């Protein structure tokens, strides 16, 4: 499907350049404000027989990177607010020190342990039993192989955690944490990363838009398979000459509204395309719901 629409998507870039802006697609307000009618439990509308890799899932990149200054910060909502806003994929870097796994971003401790993350997610899923939350753990320790054993010890024999490599359907994972595996972390379903692991070097926004289109095309081709497609819309100009002032927040401020507009073009389609997980920096509530609503077939 991706190759079929490639020319159309490229032409669309000329139009969508004008669609960058703030609104509720990008968010840098730390206070979450949801209306009474806001659809937190959006997975309730996904049928039980639907394979997980056929679902489009809003997620966050470096989900707990709330501290560290403009170069490091990727989100503004804490974990509870992200979940209530509809985020269902968490991207976590962890560092092992003695018997504790700390959530990190580079050398910055993000004021949470993995145990605390799991407790918060379990609490959320106890309230919203129709939902499931995917978690990617990225080991940052010197002894990365030990992370698997430490995570396994944390979850013990908890039946509310999916650690199998087999791709489940929605009915099998409601109310559960679903681990996803990649590289040295081997618990859960396998990921297929379409891009550059969320660390795109951005020198101009239009090039970033074009790259995201290519990544989403790849994700569409992979949907329904044994791997969960994952696309990062995030990027930073840090480390480049021309993009030195493009912090992750400034990139997201431009990309998030464009991404919302790009996805909206598929709404007349029946069924709508699958994109797997889309992990974002500073997503607003309207963008999160736009991504989630792709599952309304």
If helices are DSSP runs of H or I spanning 4 or more residues, what is the number of helices?
8
Distance between the termini: 17 Å
Query: The CATH topology, please?
Result: TIM Barrel
Q: Estimate the strand proportion.
A: 15-25%
Quote the average pLDDT: 90
Helical proportion?
A: 25-40%
Find the count of extended strands (DSSP E, 2+ residues): 12
Structural class of the helices, strands and pairings?
alpha/beta
The low-confidence parts are 1-22
- Tell me the major beta sheet: 7 strands, parallel, barrel
What topology, given as strand order, has the largest sheet?
1-2-5-7-8-10-12
Overview of the structural elements:
The protein has 297 residues and is α/β, with parallel strands linked by helices. The protein has one domain: TIM Barrel, CATH 3.20.20.190. Helices cover 30% and strands 19% of the residues. The strands form two sheets. The protein has a seven-stranded parallel β-barrel with strand order 1-2-5-7-8-10-12, surrounded by four helices. Strands 9-11 form a two-stranded parallel ribbon. The longest helix has 18 residues, at 205-222. The protein is globular and about 45 Å long. The two termini are 17 Å apart.
